Amino acid sequence: MERPCVVVARESGETARQRLAEADVIDQEFGIDVSDGSAASGAAEDDGQLYIPVTDPEAVPEDLEIERHDVPARTPQRTPADLLGEEPTYERLGDVVLVDEDGPERAAEIAEAIMESDIPVRSVLNRDSKVKGETRVRDWEVLADEGEERPPTETVHREYGHEFAVDVSEVYFSPRLATERNRVVEQVEPGEHALDMFTGAGPYAIPMADAGAEVVACDINPEAIEYLRENAERNGVADRITAHVGDVRALTDEYADWADRLVMNLPHTAAEFADAAVAFANDSAVVHLYDIQHEDDPFERGREALEDAAGDEYEVTTLEERVVRSYAPHELNVCLDARLDRID
Q1: Can you give the pTM of this predicted structure?
Q2: Measured in Å, how far apart are the chain's first and last C-alpha atoms?
Q3: Cβ–Cβ < 8 Å for 191, 213
Q4: Domain of 87, in residue numbers
């Protein structure tokens, strides 16, 4: 039956599906159609596309394309909600599912429902600590594991056409930030010098390199840099990424006045590295500074840190103040986009 559908490339299908699920607009009565390039029109541009039926086109995010398409009636699949009688909260990272439950009985119940559902999943993990230490990792309790050779905490996550191998017990990685990462990457111009100051497994560095930037990526966590290098090879951009292990401030002499774009994704403490960001900045550079602050004025600390670091050397212009997500009651995860222009 012909229905309004969001049209995306296959490689971006899971990210789009998650966004539509968050907006609660997926039409569950119909299935997702996969184009094989044999449409009646013979249009080559249809090859490798997914058509995701939606209930309300007006509620679909504006950047997603919509067209009417013939989709099949949905074959019912068992979801965790079907088995539990309610919708549990969880995140999918590749074939690993992440939950955050304090009660062990509730956690075990959700894990059992996830494993018995039709979700393609290999293991279920429950957060067992807050993000901690310089490397920003957390402890995980393994609730379910199919017992493959890989550790239950390791997976390959696909996001906007890129693949990221990651072990969440060794490297911080949040699938919820996919849309925000893509927002930044879409601003990158070929030939840019981009410095990813706290790179992790490379979810910013790798797509920026794929967009044509020359990237320097740093992380204090040696395990993160190992995954970054593996992922750079996996995505065919190893020749455009230079990786460094250690405190990024140690690179200010080597890369002084080098960067056209700086990504500072270290919430809670990124503002403390504003001096380094200014030292890295070229004559004109864009900074993406992430922070977690109280909702009353979540951007003030980042702005003041950049202005204090810039002094009389750079003019600081705010380009965008963006709320990325709610982090905790009355606390927001935000991104301050600013431009540094050297003063003659």
Answers
A1: 0.80
A2: 64
A3: yes
A4: 80-152
